[in-house]
Write a structure and sequence with these properties.
This protein is an alpha+beta fold and about 220 residues long. It has a single domain (about 5-215), classed as Beta Barrel (Sortase, Chain: A). The protein contains four helices and nine strands, in the order ααβββαββββαββ. The protein has helices spanning about 1-60, 70-80, 120, 185-190; strands spanning about 90-95, 95-105, 110-115, 125-130, 140, 160-165, 170-180, 195-200, 205-215. Strands 2-3-4-5-8-9-7-6 form an eight-stranded mixed beta barrel.
Length: about 220
């Protein structure tokens, strides 16, 4: 009996060691990929900004409100109303189709948003999962890398988010709530009258951190 108990104990210890090792390897892989994604995003977001500036210089001049993340009152009063509904411009840079870029000062995040949501693009960028800013129902997905979208779980009600299109039009949002939904529940992800939704998988992928936002526009 003692011998059998010892064998079972050794097996359980071995299994535990394997699980710990597997977890460490997975964490290391996630960290390495996250660092690569962060470095590439920093490089590409500057190219996206340069392209937006170039497009704005050649477009008809139009007065635009400046976004100052440290002055909420000024932002709300100075924003233009929602631009007239139109097709979201998609511009290819280095082989990637960009919609614009996203800024979230509360978590020190600034990343480009790619138009096609697939595993290849998600390795490095944020991706438009569904909807668009003109329709007021945009959903953006990102990987749960530590330096990338994992930080959205720390957002709080009232935190501000700015999306800038490739035409230079800006959409300001405020976080309304943060929830966790089942990883495969696409219907729940699309549910609700939210102007902007951000989501990323939890570590392991069984659930999704989901940030629901409402648009801030000039009062009439």
């Amino acid at each position: 009996m003692k011998r059998r108990d010892k064998i079972i104990s050794n097996i359980l210890i071995s299994l535990g060691a394997c699980l710990i090792l597997g977890g460490a390897l997975l964490y290391g892989f996630n960290t390495r990929e996250g660092n690569r994604a962060y470095a590439k995003s920093i490089d590409q977001v500057e190219k996206v900004k340069d392209e937006i500036s170039r497009r704005m210089e050649t477009a008809p001049s139009e007065e635009k409100a400046e976004w100052d993340p440290d002055s909420k009152e000024k932002i709300v009063e100075g924003l233009h109303s929602l631009p007239e509904a139109k097709a979201l411009s998609v511009v290819e840079i280095d082989g990637y189709p960009y919609d614009g870029y996203l800024e979230i000062p509360a978590i020190d995040l600034e990343m480009p948003v790619v138009d096609e949501c697939n595993e290849s693009n998600l390795k490095y960028f944020l991706c438009r999962f569904d909807g668009d800013p003109y329709a007021g129902d945009m959903i953006i997905a990102g990987h749960n890398y530590k330096k990338v979208f994992r930080k959205i779980r720390d957002l709080k009600e009232g935190d501000q988010i700015l999306f800038t299109t490739m035409d230079g039009e800006q959409f300001l949002y405020e976080v309304s709530e943060v929830e966790i939904i089942t990883g495969t529940d696409t219907e729940q992800m699309l549910k609700g009258d939210w102007d902007l939704t951000l989501f990323t998988c939890t570590f392991g992928g069984k659930e999704r951190y989901t940030v629901r936002c409402v648009r801030v526009i000039q009062a009439t």
